[in-house]
Write a structure and sequence with these properties.
By secondary structure, the chain is α+β, with helices and mostly antiparallel strands. The chain contains four helices and 14 strands. The chain is 13% helix and 30% strand. The C terminus is likely disordered.
Length: 221
């Protein structure tokens, strides 16, 4: 396990889970496991582009990760934070990112206003967006997370309007889906943090920090 970039290593083995995580993805075929493959778990900060090619005035993955030949398995919006998985294995990348595999992704979300039980029920059952009905999701209200790092710049504060938090787990990956879902039930997203993808999580990774796990067939099985 190798930790890198911005921030001290967690005080515990934050992602030992990742050494065996692939086994829970329906036992990947052996050709996914050619000798070694490198997987990075990266806690993407706010306003970092999900690409290695820089654009004027914007930070990108290159500013945080110096490991060659790894690419994101899926995307995370410029204005979203949290877990991004990078790998040098194309088949694993496809398995994690293609909607047909229904890999679950969990988000912690701060919304504008005090979210209601009715809104939570709508999110859970599925709702109609411009590109069709969403699939049933796991949604629940939660308190403001005590593990969360400060964001720069911070979320705007309006004394007259409260904010609230929820966790949302999806098994599909439409463009900006979480933001569109919360807006559709009347509670626009203010802050969005992806906390897990399948069996992997950001655990105690600081914003801007990554951990590298090298998989062999032995370590997975």
């Amino acid at each position: 396990m190798v930790f890198g970039a911005l921030g001290a290593a967690p005080s515990f083995k934050a992602n030992d889970l990742a050494l065996t995580a692939l086994a829970s993805l329906k036992r990947l075929p052996e050709y996914f496991l050619k000798k070694f493959m490198t997987t990075l778990l990266f806690n993407k900060p706010f306003r970092v582009q999900c690409q290695f090619s820089p654009e004027a005035g914007r930070q990108c993955l290159k500013d945080y990760i110096d490991v060659p030949q790894v690419y994101p398995a899926g995307r995370l919006d410029f204005d979203s934070e949290g877990l991004l998985i990078l790998t040098d294995n194309g088949k694993l990348q496809s398995r994690l990112s293609h909607p047909k595999h229904k890999v679950k992704k969990t988000y912690t979300v701060q919304v504008d206003g005090e979210i209601t039980d009715e809104a939570i029920e709508q999110l859970t059952k599925g709702l109609k967006l411009k590109d069709g009905m969403t699939k049933p999701a796991l949604a629940r209200k939660c308190s403001a997370p005590d593990w969360l790092w400060p964001r720069q710049p911070p979320v705007r504060f309006r004394q007259s309007i409260p904010t609230s938090w929820l966790t949302l787990t999806l098994s599909e990956g439409r463009n900006r889906q979480v933001r569109r879902m919360t807006a559709a039930v009347g509670f626009p997203t203010l802050r969005l943090i992806r906390t897990s993808i399948g069996p992997w999580s950001i655990a105690n990774l600081a914003a801007g920090q990554w951990v590298r796990v090298q998989h062999t067939e032995h370590s997975i099985y």
